[in-house]
Amino acid sequence: MSKAFKKAVSAILGLTLCAGMCACNQTQPGTSASGEPDASGAVEASGADADTDAVYGGEAVVGITQEPSSFDPHTAVAAGDKELIFNIYEGLYKFDSTGTLNPCLATDCEISEDSSVYTFTIREGVTFHNGDTLDADDVVYSLKRAAGLLDSQDGTALVTELDCIKDVEKSDDGKVVVTLESGNSELLSYFTTGIIPDGYDNCEAAPVGTGPFMFDSYTIGENVTLVKNPNYWQDGLPYLDTVTFKICADMDSGLLELQNGNIDIFPYLDSIRAEQLDTTQFTIESNGSNMVQIFALNNAVAPLDDARVREAINLAINREDIIEVTMGGAGVELTTAMSPAMGSYYDTSLDGTYSQNIDEAKALLAEAGYPDGFELTVTVPSNYLVHVNTAVELASELSAVGIDLEIEQVDWATWLESVYTNREYESTVICLTSDYAPYDVLQRYASDSSDNFINYSNSEVDELLAEIPTLADTEAKTELYHQILNILVEDNASCYIQDPTTLTAVSVRLTGYSVYPMYVQDMSQVKVVE
Amino acid sequence: MSLNTRQNLKYAGLKFIELIATLFVVSFLTFAAFSIIPGDTAQIMLGPNASPEQVARLRTELGLDQPLPVRYITWVAGAFTGNLGDSSSFKVPVISLIAQRLPVTLGMSILALIMVIAVSYPLSVFSARRPGRIGDTICSILGHVLFAIPPFVLSLLLIVLASGVLHIFTMGKYAPPEKGFGNYIASLALPAFAIALPKIAMTFKFMRSAIIEQNASEYVKTERSHGLSEARIFLRHVLPNSNVSSITIITLVLSDILGGSLIVEQVFNLPGLGRLLLTAIDRRDFPLMSGMIFYLALITVILYFVSDILASIADPRIRLK
Predict the structure, then answer these.
(1) Among the four residues A75, A139, A397, A474, which has the most C-beta atoms within 10 Å?
(2) Which residues of A touch B46 (CB under 8 A)?
(3) Of the listed ranges A39-53, A244-258, B264-278, the one predicted with least confidence
(4) A59 vs chain B: nearest CA distance in angstroms?
(5) Which of A308, A249, A305, A258 is nearest to A282 (CA)?
(6) pLDDT, tens only, A6-28
(7) If contacts are CB pairs under 8 Å, which of residues 33-72 in chain A contact chain B?
(8) What is the Cα–Cα distance from A76 to B46, expressed in whole angstroms?
C-alpha cells in the first residue's frame, strides 16, 4: 500500500513539475505576441480584424475575485466594478487597449484656449439599451449628475474629479458645452464617465448604457450576466451572445475552476499560478499594468522622517530580485512614482537611479544616527500574495543593513482603514492604481491630498501640481510632470519597486482578448474560435 | 397534570430560557468583536481610489452614519421580533440572502449526516461485535487517521483526486435543486463526503466503545446466562442503551458538520452560508454578519435543545439531575 501511495505521489509531483516547466517555456512567446508596452506606452493591438472569419455567438465566463459593489457609472469607484461596467456604459471618450483616449459617444472635443470650456459634438445613430436614441440632453443630464449639479443633488460631485464643472449646457446646434470653474487642461480623460438616458436614476438595479453588452442579471455571491447589445453602434461588435462574470472565493479556487473549464478568462494571475496552467488549454495574455508597486514609507514617523534613512532603504533593496521572487520576472523595475507605461509623461532619465549598494546604505544609516539599524514594521494586506511575498523578500534584503523588518499581515478592510485612511502604520507594500492620466498618478503627493497616505510633503511639488492644470501646452505640462518625478526621487519619498505585468489566462477556445493597462475587461472583441 | 408532565414542562422551559440567553450572549459578543476590529463598509466597497466625499456619501446612503451601538440596539430589537434587517452592503433583506444560500449548506449538511449514520453505524456494530480482530483493528486505525485530518485538507485531497485525476467531479459547479434533484445531490456529494469522513471516524469511535461497554455490562451477562439469543440481546438491549449516548454524539456531529461545511464550501467554491459569512466579515457588513451568526447560533442551540429533550425521553434519569 505504501509503495502504491509513493508511486501516486511521485506521479502527481512529476506531472506538476512538467506542467510548470512547459508553462515556463511557453509563457515567453505568448507574452511578446500580445505586445509589451514600449516607452511610449503603445501596445500592438491584438485587433479583431486580423481574422477574417468573424464567429458570432457563444459565451464566455470571466472569473472575478470581488463582489460587485455598484453598477452605477457615476458612483462605481472600485477597480472591480469599473472593469465590469466598461462593457455596459460608454463615455464621450473611451480608452483602448493601448491606453489611447479615443472619441466615443462624442465625435470630437474643442477645448478653449484657457482650458475652461470643453465643447463636445455628440455622435449620431447611437441607441441606449432601452431603445432611446442618444442626444445632447442625455449627455447634459449624465454630466450634471456626475458633477453633482442636478437640482435634486446637494452639489458634491459623484465623480470627484468632475467637481470642477460649473455648468453643462446644450448649445443651439446640438453640441454639449461644459464650463469649468477655472481652466483645467487635464480633464478630458474623465469624460470617459458613463452616459445614461436623460432623467434615468435606476442604474444600480437596472443599468442602461450604450455599451456593447446589456446588463441581464446579478446573483449575489454567484455571478453577473451580460447579454449582447444587438443595436450596438460599432458595426460588427460584439461577437459573444453572453458574458458571465463569475465570482470566485479567491485566486486559488478561481484557478481550479479555470482548470476545470468553468471559467474561460481569469485575470490578475501571478506568475506562480500562471505557470501551473496547461499551455495547450490556455494562452497567457500580458501587458504592463500601469500600476505602481510601492514599499510605502510613512514620512511622518521616525526614523522614516529622515530622508537619509529612506535613501538607505532605497539603496539596500534589490528590485530585480524582488520582481524575480514575486512575479517570476514579469514586472518592470521602477525608481519613481510613475510607470513607464505612461509614455512620454514618464522621465526615462530616471531609469536605474538606484542600484543596490549595501556599503553606501550603511554609511547613510550611520550618518542618520542608526549605525546598527532599527526595527521597522511593514503592514501588508494578507489577501495580496504578491505584496506579502514582497515583504518577505524585503525583510531578508534589509537585514543586510541591520534593519529588522517585522511583517504584520492584516485583512483588506483593516488595511484600508488603519493604513490608507488613518495612516497609522510605519511601512506597507501595496500597488497604487490610478486612472490612465498622469495627473491622477501624481496628485496623491500633494500635501493636502486624501490619497497622500505616505504623508509626503514638499511645497515645490504642491506648487507644480497646482500649476499643471492651468497649462494648455502638453510639452510644458510634460516638463512639469518630469520635475515632480525628479523631486520625488531626490526626496526619496518612498521605495518604488515595480510595475507588475498583468497576466490573464484565456481559454484557447476564445480569441480577441486584450489586456488593458488599466482596470478594464473589454469583452467586445472576444469571440469563440471555430 | 401529572408530576411527570410538569417536570417535563419545567425542564423544557428552563432549556428555553437558556436558549434565549445564549442567543443574546452570542449577539452581544458579535457586536463587541465588531466594534473592536477596524474597517468600514463604505470604504471597502469603494476601494482606495475613492475620495472621502464619495465614501461619506455611501456611508449615509447605507445608513452607516449612525454609531454602531445605536445600530446594534436597533438590530437586537429587530432580531428578537424576527426581523434581521437589511444587509448594509447588498441593500437587501438579510433573511433573503440566507434563504438563497440555505439549500447549499443545508443540503450538504443533511447529505453528510446521512453518510455519517449510514457508514458509522454498521461499521461500529461490525467492529464492536469482534473487538481486537483484524477487521476491527483496520477500522480503528483508519478511524484514528481520518479523525485527525481537518476537513479543509481532506477537501483539497478529494478535489485533486476526483477532479484532477479521475475527472468525475467539476469543481465549483453547483446545480440548484430546481434544476433537477439528481444534479443537485451530485454537485454536493463530494463536499459532503469531505465533511462526513472525519465525523464518520468520530461517531464510529464513540459508538464502538459504547457497544463494547454495554456488551461487557452486568445485565448483558445476566441475559446471556438466562439463555437469551445474541440477536435479541443486541437489538433489544445493547443498541437502545448505546443510543442514549449516540443522541448526544449525533448532535455534536451535526453542529460540527454545520461548522465544517462553512469551511469546506469555501474550498469547493460553493455559494453557501460559509461564503456569505466570509463576505459579510470582509465587507464589515454588521447586519449581515450578526444576522448570520444569530441564525447559525439559533440552529445550533435548537439542535442541542431538541437533543436534550430527546435524551431525557430516552433516559428519564437525565431529567432528575
Answers:
(1) A139
(2) 69, 77-78
(3) A39-53
(4) 17
(5) A258
(6) 444 444 443 333 333 333 333 33
(7) 67, 69-70
(8) 7
Reported residue count of chain A is 530
Residue-range domains of chain A with CATH:
59-88+211-288+503-530 (3.40.190.10), 89-203 (3.90.76.10), 292-500 (3.10.105.10)
With a cut of 0.90, is the ipTM above it?
A: no
- Contact criterion met (CB < 8 Å) for A75 and B279: no
Please give the angle made by the CA atoms of B162, B165 and B170, to the nearest 5 degrees.
Answer: 45
Give the chain A residue nearest B38 (alpha carbons): A414
| B210 min Cα distance to partner chain A (Å) | 31
**What is the rounded CA–CA span in Å between residue B155 and residue B136?**
26
> Which residue carries 464617465 as its cell?
A193
Q: Quick check: B269 and A157 CB within 8 A?
A: no
Give the gyration radius of chain B's Cα atoms.
24
Phi-psi region of B39 (alpha: psi -120 to 50; beta: other; left: phi over 0): left
CA distance A152 to A169: 17
Q: Taking a C-beta distance cutoff of 8 angstroms, is the pair A189, A93 a contact?
A: yes
Measuring CA to CA, which residue among A471, A491, A496 is closest to residue A481? A471
Instruction: Give B103→chain A minimum CA distance, Å.
Output: 14
B21, HSE (Cβ side, Cα atoms, 13 Å): 7
| Disruptive mutation site among A64, A84, A264, A421 for chain B (greatest number of B CBs within 10 Å) | A421
B173 CB within 8 Å of a chain A CB: yes
Angle, in degrees to the nearest 10, between helices B134-148 and B94-129: 150
Q: Cβ(A282)–Cβ(A258) under 8 Å?
A: yes
Instruction: Please give the torsion angle defined by the CA atoms of residues B234, B238, B243 and B245, in that order, rounded to the nearest 10 degrees.
Output: -150
- For A143, residues 6+ apart whose C-beta sits below 8 A from its C-beta are A162, A165, A168, A176, A178, A191, A193
CA distance linking residue A224 with residue B150, whole number of Å: 33
The C-alpha of B171 sits at a distance from chain A's nearest C-alpha, in angstroms, of 6
Distances (CA, A) of A86 to A207, A437, A506: 12, 17, 19
**Contacting residues of B for A75, CB less than 8 Å apart:** 54, 57-58
The answer to whether B172 and B268 have CB atoms below 8 angstroms apart is yes
**What pTM was estimated for this model as a whole?**
0.79
B266 vs A157: CB contact, 8 Å cut-off? no
pLDDT digits (tens, 9 = 90+) for B3-58: 567 777 787 788 788 888 888 888 888 888 888 888 888 888 888 878 888 888 88
